[in-house]
Amino acid sequence: MDFPLVFRPLPAPLSKKTIQAFRKDAGWPPGGDAPGGSKPTHGKVQWVTVDCRNKMIGIARLELAPPQFCYLSDLIISSAYRRKGVGDWFMKNIERYCLQFGVPRLLLEPRDGTREFYEKMHFVADPYVGGFLKKDLNPFQRRTLALSR
């Protein structure tokens, strides 16, 4: 990766227009949970982004429910930056962010074509919730990730 990336937790939800633009770029159908989500949540909703040279190139919606889990959805990297390591970098920073809040587990429901990416990031099938993947986070990972920047 030859470009500077910045992980940014947002102080407010993304606009519906921004979310829809990312969804369209990803080939996802319009609609969904935006902004802040229309379905009931089990924790604090936090949008995070990855920026490159002051341009937003990736988004993710985190539903933080410490101390149990973080539900991850709407993780989208702009098509121009896919398959360049940005998604891996973003996921590692999301994990580190969750660990700061004492969240030991990530849960998600992979979209078509994304399962392989998440399995590469060490997500496994959740035995309790069909169709979902989970990843138990290592509390010592925070230090490891900080050293690997």
UniProtKB/TrEMBL annotation:
The keyword Transferase applies. Coiled coil: none annotated. This is GNAT family N-acetyltransferase. GO terms for molecular function: acyltransferase activity, transferring groups other than amino-acyl groups. Keywords: Transferase. Residues 5-149 form the N-acetyltransferase domain.
